[in-house]
């Protein structure tokens, strides 16, 4: 069997594919990470990978002066989106897709950090996101964005309208983190984001306990969601 290519842009090492890795491999994808800070990590033809995944990170995409690679990353995504090839963005990745699509990305004025379900739109309930209905998702962001032109809103929370969107049948943006492994590996998130959690006055003990409580259900729902989305992408 010829493996399909999944190229994954990773901004911080502990925010990886998590629970999405197994269903991608089952679907026949060979996974290649491109890590920020590695020379030439954005040197690839954007239209070539069978799947492009852009993961999260603690940056604001309007911080191009501090992090110049963001300019190139947005350009790569704009070319990718123009090709119509399958693209998945999570948190920062969704914001980058929104910006590359011409939408505004901006600080929301608060930190949404913790586990809560999302409210699905009618389109969301008819999509692969139906598997996430009622399951607490990990939220970890301080920015939001306008819905890109031509995109379909799939999910919201009471505090953040734009939680998930699709563009056509091949592009999916998720502001929340269904891929997060809420098992023992979640400790890497707590350590890696220690300063942000302290500044936001987040109860780390409660966050760790909530992760342990919801982790098994979240993993099952996330696996089912990404599996169905890949099936739909392939069918299209």
Topology diagram in text:
Blueprint: E1 4-10, H1 21-26, E2 29-35, E3 51-54, H2 69-83, E4 87-90, H3 92-100, E5 105-116, E6 119-120, H4 122-125, E7 137-145, E8 152-156, E9 164-167, E10 171-174, H5 186-192, H6 194-199, H7 204-235
Parallel strand pairs: 1-2, 1-3, 3-4, 4-10
Antiparallel strand pairs: 5-7, 6-8, 8-9, 9-10
Task: Describe, in short, the structure shown.
This protein is an alpha/beta fold and 236 residues long.
Query: Which CATH C-level class is it?
Result: Alpha Beta
Which strands sit side by side, in order, in the main sheet?
2-1-3-4-10-9-8-6
- The CATH superfamily appears as Class I glutamine amidotransferase (GATase) domain
Shape assignment: globular
Number of domains: 1
CATH-assigned fold name: Rossmann fold
> What is the subunit organization of this protein?
single chain
Q: Tell me how many strands there are.
A: 10
Please tag this protein with its features.
eight-stranded mixed β-sheet; Rossmann fold; 7 helices; about 240 residues; two-stranded antiparallel sheet; globular; alpha/beta
Description of the structure:
The protein is an alpha/beta fold and 236 residues long. The protein has one domain (4-235): Class I glutamine amidotransferase (GATase) domain (Rossmann fold, 3-Layer(aba) Sandwich), CATH 3.40.50. It contains 7 helices and 10 strands. Strands 2-1-3-4-10-9-8-6 form an 8-stranded mixed sheet. The protein has a two-stranded antiparallel ribbon with strand order 5-7. Helix 2 (69-83) crosses helix 3. The protein is globular, with a radius of gyration of 16 Å. The chain starts with a strand and ends with a helix.
